[in-house]
Amino acid sequence: MNEEEKVDKEEKTEAEQPAEEIKEEPAKPEKDEKDKKKSKKEKPEEKKEEPQKPTPEQELAGANDRYLRLMAEYDNFRKRSQKEKESLYGDIKANTVKEFLPVYDNLERALAAETADEAYRKGVEMIMTQFSKTLEKLGVTEIKSLGEKFDPNLHNAVMHVDDEEKGENEIVEVFQKGFMLGDKVIRFAMVKVAN
Fold first, then answer.
1. Calpha distance 151→171 (Å, rounded)
2. Other residues' Cβ atoms within 10 Å of the Cβ of residue 110
3. What SS3 state is found at 194?
4. If you write DSSP's letter for every residue of 122-189 in order, what string do you get?
5. Phi and psi torsions of 135, nearest 5°
6. CA angle, 13 then 15 then 18, to 5°
7. Tens digits of per-residue pLDDT, 1-52?
8. Is 190 helix (H, G, I), strand (E, B) or coil?
9. Cα within 13 Å of Cα(57), Cβ side
10. Per DSSP, what are the bridge partners of residue 184?
């Protein structure tokens, strides 16, 4: 048994030796890497120089530049806000007027209808006059159509007629008046076009 024990111990020591060698080899590169890291850390410290402080003139120029940029940005914001506000007001006004245009159309039809009651007719005329003046105060204008050349930006052609007496693309009849608010068309004029 003694011999067997000796053989077992020898085998164990031989098996342990390569494992120890393997353990030792990686340990050496770790030390080398640590040394390299230390040397790298030392090098930047050597290269580091104290950052130069800007001169008072440079600081003043930088502050002035930032101030001018901030003022320009604020001015642009103010102009953009004003333009958006005006645009929103114009759109709301145009949409409101558009909702009242059917009332205008009905008042025109009432005036065109014949009636025996003169007081009734006079009352409708007064309402129509007041309504027209209110539209004018709001800046709403009627689109001139009858006898004019057809313009697709202002007119909506719903009928076409051949007439030798009329010019080409001339409007011969208006079915529904069109209106504008400034340069914006609120409602296109529905027209009949010749040729």
1. 10
2. 16
3. strand
4. HHHHHHHHHHHHHHHHTTEEEPP-TTSBP-TTTEEEEEEE--TTSPTTEEEEEEE--EEETTEEEEPE
5. -60, -40
6. 105
7. 555 555 555 555 554 554 444 444 444 555 555 555 555 555 555 556 667 8
8. strand
9. 0
10. 181
pLDDT tens for each residue of 41-60:
555 555 566 678 888 999 99
| Residue 167 to residue 158: CA distance in whole angstroms | 18
Name residue 26's amino acid: P
| pTM for this model (two decimals) | 0.59
Tokens of 149: 């050349």
Other CB atoms within a 10 A radius of the CB of residue 81 amount to 10
Under DSSP, the state recorded for 54 is P
Element (H, E) at 193: strand 189-194
Using alpha carbons, select from 121, 120, 125, 108 the residue that is nearest to residue 179: 108
